Amino acid sequence: MSRPKMPVRDWQAEVYAQHQYWIAGKPIHMAVGDGWAEVIARLFDRIEKALAGEPVPTKIALIDVKEKYGTIRVDLLAPVGPETEAAIDLAVLLAEMRSECTCDICGAPGTVRSTLGQSGWLAARCEDHSDGFPRRVVKGPPRRRIQDRRGTFDLVYDRRTDTIMETAVDGGDSR
Ligand SMILES: [Zn+2]
User: Fold this and answer.
1) What's the predicted TM-score (pTM) here?
2) Ligand 1 center from residue 78 Cα (angstroms)
3) Closest Cα to residue 153, out of 138, 135, 170?
4) Given the DSSP bridges, would you call strands 151-158 and 143-148 parallel, antiparallel or unpaired?
5) Beta-sheet pairing, 61-68 with 71-77
6) What distance in angstroms lies between residue 22's CA and the mean position of ligand 1's atoms?
7) Rounded to an integer, what distance in angstroms lies between the CA atom of residue 117 and that of residue 110?
8) For site-directed labelling of 100, which of 63, 66, 155, 164 has its Cα 20 to 30 A away?
9) What distance in angstroms lies between residue 100's CA and the mean position of ligand 1's atoms?
């Protein structure tokens, strides 16, 4: 006798129902906390907008959506043109950065925290859900350092506006 499978959580069923026409194959279970439902909803909305620029209706295969090191990881296969691909890449980056500052239990503003000791489990949590994760790992807003021919830049995420700002780091010229 096999046990019944874990049901897909309601918010996952809902977001899939709203976006099923551009998702190839059966919905995969997204291994993230309920607090990130809004992160996923924003991601799917952005992917849908990006796909509107494709000349023909295009489906995307979601390979894997999960939490790792306190951040959302999105693995997908999109047979799209370069402009749409860039828009989808940006949508995924925005989702990653939002997940870093969104409690994965309740969806309130939070930060990546770790357990004490060697094991160092990480999770994005608000103050109310910081039990077991006492140490703040990320200080300030989520950021990614990038280097290109212009110099070195930080991409800094603003949670309120859900946007990324680019700021130059020593010697880079952003103007
Ligand atoms: Zn919380």
Assistant:
1) 0.89
2) 33
3) 170
4) antiparallel
5) antiparallel
6) 31
7) 21
8) 63
9) 13
